[in-house]
Amino acid sequence: xxxxxxxxxxxxxxxxxxxxxxxxxxxxxxxxxxxxxxxxxxxxxxxxxxxxxxxxxxxxxxxxxxxxxxxxxxxxxxxxxxxxxxxxxxxxxxxxxxxxxxxxxxxxxxxxxxxxxxxxxxxxxxxxxxxxxxxxxxxxxxxxxxxxxxxxxxxxxxxxxxxxxxxxxxxxxxxxxxxxxxxxxxxxxxxxxxxxxxxxxxxxxxxxxxxxxxxxxxxxxxxxxxxxxxxxxxxxxxxxxxxxxxxxxxxxxxxxxxxxx
Amino acid sequence: xxxxxxxxxxxxxxxxxxxxxxxxxxxxxxxxxxxxxxxxxxxxxxxxxxxxxxxxxxxxxxxxxxxxxxxxxxxxxxxxxxxxxxxxxxxxxxxxxxxxxxxxxxxxxxxxxxxxxxxxxxxxxxxxxxxxxxxxxxxxxxxxxxxxxxxxxxxxxxxxxxxxxxxxxxxxxxxxxxxxxxxxxxxxxxxxxxxxxxxxxxxxxxxxxxxxxxxxxxxxxxxxxxxxxxxxxxxxxx
Lengths: 261, 238
What we know:
- The structure holds 2 protein chains of 2 kinds.
- By secondary structure, chain A is α+β, with helices and mostly antiparallel strands.
- Chain A folds into 2 domains: 2-81 and 224-258, no CATH class; 86-220, no CATH class.
- Chain A is built from 2 helices and 20 strands.
- Chain A has helices spanning 2-26, 226-258, and strands at 36-42, 45-49, 66-69, 72-79, 86-88, 95-98, 102-106, 112-115, 121-122, 128-129, 135-137, 146-151, 156-161, 168-172, 175-177, 185-188, 191-193, 202-204, 213-216, 218-220.
- In chain A, a hairpin with a 5-residue loop joins strand 7 (102-106) and strand 8 (112-115).
- In chain A, helix 1 packs antiparallel against helix 2.
- By secondary structure, chain B is of the alpha+beta class.
- Helix content of chain B is 26%, strand content 30%.
- In chain B, strands 5, 6, 9, 13 and 16 form a 5-stranded antiparallel sheet that branches. In chain B, strands 10-11-12 form a 3-stranded antiparallel sheet, with no helix packed on it.
- Chains A and B meet through helix 1, strand 1, strand 2, strand 3 and strand 4 of A and helix 1, strand 1, strand 2, strand 14 and helix 2 of B.
């Protein structure tokens, strides 16, 4: 029975919906996390009576035929790139991007990774690294005798060195923007990779046209909204319920047929 | 002449299709821009060579409920909901297709595309291309897309003389051979999606109705069968 397989596609879609929601809720406090949203589309249709077919020799046509659908499918699960709230951490190497742009990270494989999560630390050599120890690109080394690090909105990194009066420039941060940032591939560890869909990375200093600014001492929290997630969860669960009801109703109809004497 | 069985059979076949339509509506409860559909039945009259009329049932058409769906805020700047009438036009390999499912994104080259990769067309019928390195896209109610550098393009909304003659093609796309006309007063809401207009309660009651009707028809068949059997038994005894 067609209605059974249609309802099965519905249940599968809602199950995926719940999976996406649970991932969002699990990452509610992940720095720089962007919430995900599934998008559904209807599946192919079969015509029982074709729309526009002739219904007589006088040129009358069928205004609305009978097209039976075969269910629903997940078209995409996309990231919603709204700005997350900025949380004050007072840690000198915590950086948040206000506006568009990603920090560039050198992965051990030699590839470049992109992240919104700006909780950086210092390596034993004084280099600025991510929580996993990956180097920030372009690299910035902090001398061992630096007392204070200051990073301004345009990404200029300066340090106060013991015994020196003027601040010493250490380097310039760069952000990467993409034509289609939704097309970046998430690989875990708060990292994203460039894909064909995202387009190539455009590097530039923070604060220039098209790039966000950097805020020192702050972290961007996730943009997951618990109220929204829970309401979606309820909708998804109810939709799942109803699809399973369709299956049991179809089953009942089939049972009626088998009981025919 | 076993008209009773045939009439019942015609009813059961249409009921099974009705069930598929209901299942399709429920499965697409969370599909953006989906419009609920309902089967239209008609009796088909046939004079079966005897006095009186025998009415078979046939499903003659599918009626699409064109009422608006609720608008859901998503926060994605390229999620567009149409308030009121109209369809977006997208370009496919097989010609233009129309949709109300307004989830769009940019591809690597900066073109506005659906999740199937089909380009959204502007009011003049050309694909919409945004300049690279756009930071913020704002889309006005009339479909004008502007970035920090000014107006880039205008999304075209189209309408048709007969909305019911749009065929479905899957992927939330509609197809028709009618000539599209531009919508006089387009009303597009940015950062929102139009949810499906499926009403779960209605669909559930329709589903129960279908199951019961199916069972009743079955009972009719059984009763009829029983009658025939008794006639045979009695005539054999007589």
